[in-house]
Amino acid sequence: MRVSYKWLKEYIDLDIPVDELAEKIERSSVEVDSVIKPSEGLKKIVVGQILNLEDHPDSDHLHICQVDVGDDEPVQIVCGAPNVEKGKKVIVALSGARIADNIKIKKSKMRGIQSNGMLCALDEIGYPKDVVPKEWADGIYFLPEDAKVGNDVYKYIGMDDELIDLDVTPNRGDMLSMYGTIHDLSAIYNKPAKFDNVKVQKTSGKKTADQISSDVDSQIALTYKNRIVNNVEIKPSPLWLQICLWNAGIKPINNIIDITNYLMLKFGQPMHAYDLDKLHGNNISVRNAKKGEKITTLAEDEVDLDENDIVVADDRPIALAGVIGGIDTSITNDTKNVLFECAVFDPIKVRKMARKHVIHTEASQRFERGINRGGLDEVMENACQMSNELANGEVCDDTLNGSEFNAQPVVVNITLTKINHVLGTNLSSEQVKDIFERLGFDTKVDGDAFVVTVPTRRWDIHIDADLIEEVARIYGYDNLPSTLPTTTMTTGKLQPKQQLIRNSRSILEGLGLTHAISYALTSQDKAKMFMMQKSFETNLSYPMTNDHETLRMNLVTGLLDDIAYNKARNVHDVALYEQGRVFYKENENEVRPSEIEHISGAITGSLLRSTWNEKAKEVDFYQIKGIVDKYLETIGFINQVEYVANADYPEMHPGRTADIMIHGHYVGFIGEVHPNIAKKFKINTTYVFDLNLQLLNDLPKTDQSYESISKYPSISRDIAILIDENVTNNDILKVINKRGGAFLRDVNLFDVYNGEHVPSGKKSMAYNLIFQNKRDTLVDDDVNKAMDKIQRNLEKEFEIEVR
């Protein structure tokens, strides 16, 4: 919210630089985005009066104006505005002037005629186009008659003001008003504030209740009030009111609408005005919308409604309650009778509706954060009295209460001991009481105890901790003593899970993969792909897009999207990994899903580029398996990993996919993405893996320890066997490692053959075995015994034939 410094000073005596005031607000109340000085950067922009004008001889829209700017002689300015008029006082940018966007005005010729300046519209000197009143949107602006020719123009259009742009937090909705800001500054600077006490001075004798009735759902509107003003004259607002609005970023419309916006800025209470004669019937209701109903808003957007929306209605919706009015009952130049609305709408319902329809307004912002539930009568009195003064309206005697909540001040108990203990201060009872009274809180003191009555305008205060915060900020955070906490000092270090995550990243990057980060939100279809366990999806209630509506249940689809992104830009060799969380729900009604750490990888193309002596090789199953093997071995799973073929993954190639098992536990999968899925993602052949990092952290691992290199020689032996085709390499390795004895150090498969001279249903496999004794020289007899034992057990288990 933009706070006018000049408007502030009407209520409280402040005589400090605006930058200092903004810093004080930021230190004590809410954040300040910026301090805006509308005239900053502008120069040589003055009040001028058009003495004479004539049409340009070579143009059908340009005019040659003689303008008095307070000099001895008028200046000649060529102007193309359609509303230029003799005798009017206007904004003149002289030659050498600086206007908006630091544009410099120079003398020039326009179609052969000398022009020595520029007649300006409001947006040309810095006001945003969307706050310029409609009557001045397509032409130059006419200044008031009392503007003195030759003077700087800034004070006549509010540009001599200074604006503090507040970034109001959700808990301080009271600061979305001038009165709320004034109350805070009054307490901070310990200065009295002068507030208005406006009452309707004259009523018409007519009754609101005779002209309208209301039917209000109190679950939607705790308080709902209406009052009618008859026979209004719709016209532009006075200049002071327009300046107040456009400096706050609100476009002036007409006197009635401007009154509602002005009071919203003043009190923080949104209002709405309806054209009474445009209502269907004489009853107004506040209810849930009906399915299929529609409304065209003041922004001329048609909105489809459902049962979760809340509306103000006659026999059709005429406003989205707390958000925006409808165009069918809007105030126009023909309006004669006005129905004012002042209400307290349910903040949660307003927020959900505004977010669902993406309609965020000044009104919805205030209802969402909360308003003063005890201040509606004062706001209604102000609106009606201003309607009488500015629109000659006849105010009805009564206010129609469709619903009314009796807002009561909150009473909070606290002790001086607790305040000083929490803040580390040594404040006296008199100091604390003074702070509460400066805030406008009625305070009773009984020894160490305070009984504090908090007015309804501060609806954010409920408990003693809130009062402690108020004492701290008014006393001054800078005045609080600085002390070091008394605690037991411990050595900081990473937890095992954190260390595993960090090591995993380092290992995979060392193996040639690049770290990628994907969105945790994805589409429903992608969320349910590549799943390692059954789960219900977790959907957002109000997603921003269909591509980000469901929490992911795998990391692989995010990596495939990244590969597709690179392929579309002619990057064909991509190796990525991602470490992050996936979200599982065991049952559909579970509110909060379980968050499980995973680590995944995806490789397409080649890991190595072609060189002069070796061509690049496309990645295959064994290459990505080697990466996973090395990763698992490095984190502590040595000779514990097993790969089991699995053709049940619908998104994976049925013949090139395997489950990854450790100690019999399923920890992930590895393989080629199914060609149909690759085609869907518009990528080439891609291999992926996905591991449950949470489970890897929990499983027992082999501690890595130092081993000296043996100084004794090793012995190498080969064995080639003929075996059934259905026996796997893993089955054979289990037997060799189990029966190889204490000196067996390594086993490698170096040949597989099932061609000519090999019987049908058989295959030939050749292994190289390395034996070594770390403490003594190994002799052939020991190796021969180990080889014989291995051969016997292979023959026993698989009926092999040694070749």
TrEMBL record:
<dbReference type="InterPro" id="IPR045864">
    <property type="entry name" value="aa-tRNA-synth_II/BPL/LPL"/>
</dbReference>
<dbReference type="InterPro" id="IPR020825">
    <property type="entry name" value="Phe-tRNA_synthase-like_B3/B4"/>
</dbReference>
<keyword id="KW-0820">tRNA-binding</keyword>
<dbReference type="InterPro" id="IPR009061">
    <property type="entry name" value="DNA-bd_dom_put_sf"/>
</dbReference>
<feature type="binding site">
    <location>
        <position position="470"/>
    </location>
    <ligand>
        <name>Mg(2+)</name>
    </ligand>
</feature>
<dbReference type="GO" id="GO:0004826">
    <property type="term" value="F:phenylalanine-tRNA ligase activity"/>
</dbReference>
<keyword id="KW-0479">Metal-binding</keyword>
<feature type="binding site">
    <location>
        <position position="460"/>
    </location>
    <ligand>
        <name>Mg(2+)</name>
    </ligand>
</feature>
<keyword id="KW-0694">RNA-binding</keyword>
<keyword id="KW-0460">Magnesium</keyword>
<dbReference type="InterPro" id="IPR041616">
    <property type="entry name" value="PheRS_beta_core"/>
</dbReference>
<dbReference type="Pfam" id="PF17759">
    <property type="entry name" value="tRNA_synthFbeta"/>
</dbReference>
<keyword id="KW-0030">Aminoacyl-tRNA synthetase</keyword>
<keyword id="KW-0648">Protein biosynthesis</keyword>
<dbReference type="Pfam" id="PF03484">
    <property type="entry name" value="B5"/>
</dbReference>
<comment type="similarity">
    <text>Belongs to the phenylalanyl-tRNA synthetase beta subunit family. Type 1 subfamily.</text>
</comment>
<feature type="domain" description="FDX-ACB">
    <location>
        <begin position="710"/>
        <end position="803"/>
    </location>
</feature>
<protein>
    <recommendedName>
        <fullName>Phenylalanine--tRNA ligase beta subunit</fullName>
        <ecNumber>6.1.1.20</ecNumber>
    </recommendedName>
</protein>
<dbReference type="InterPro" id="IPR004532">
    <property type="entry name" value="Phe-tRNA-ligase_IIc_bsu_bact"/>
</dbReference>
<keyword id="KW-0963">Cytoplasm</keyword>
<dbReference type="Pfam" id="PF01588">
    <property type="entry name" value="tRNA_bind"/>
</dbReference>
<dbReference type="InterPro" id="IPR033714">
    <property type="entry name" value="tRNA_bind_bactPheRS"/>
</dbReference>
<dbReference type="InterPro" id="IPR045060">
    <property type="entry name" value="Phe-tRNA-ligase_IIc_bsu"/>
</dbReference>
<feature type="domain" description="TRNA-binding">
    <location>
        <begin position="39"/>
        <end position="154"/>
    </location>
</feature>
<dbReference type="InterPro" id="IPR005121">
    <property type="entry name" value="Fdx_antiC-bd"/>
</dbReference>
<keyword id="KW-0547">Nucleotide-binding</keyword>
<keyword id="KW-0067">ATP-binding</keyword>
<feature type="domain" description="B5">
    <location>
        <begin position="407"/>
        <end position="482"/>
    </location>
</feature>
<feature type="binding site">
    <location>
        <position position="469"/>
    </location>
    <ligand>
        <name>Mg(2+)</name>
    </ligand>
</feature>
<dbReference type="Pfam" id="PF03147">
    <property type="entry name" value="FDX-ACB"/>
</dbReference>
<dbReference type="InterPro" id="IPR012340">
    <property type="entry name" value="NA-bd_OB-fold"/>
</dbReference>
<dbReference type="InterPro" id="IPR002547">
    <property type="entry name" value="tRNA-bd_dom"/>
</dbReference>
<dbReference type="InterPro" id="IPR005147">
    <property type="entry name" value="tRNA_synthase_B5-dom"/>
</dbReference>
<dbReference type="Pfam" id="PF03483">
    <property type="entry name" value="B3_4"/>
</dbReference>
<dbReference type="InterPro" id="IPR036690">
    <property type="entry name" value="Fdx_antiC-bd_sf"/>
</dbReference>
<keyword id="KW-0436">Ligase</keyword>
<dbReference type="InterPro" id="IPR005146">
    <property type="entry name" value="B3/B4_tRNA-bd"/>
</dbReference>
<feature type="binding site">
    <location>
        <position position="466"/>
    </location>
    <ligand>
        <name>Mg(2+)</name>
    </ligand>
</feature>
<comment type="subunit">
    <text>Tetramer of two alpha and two beta subunits.</text>
</comment>
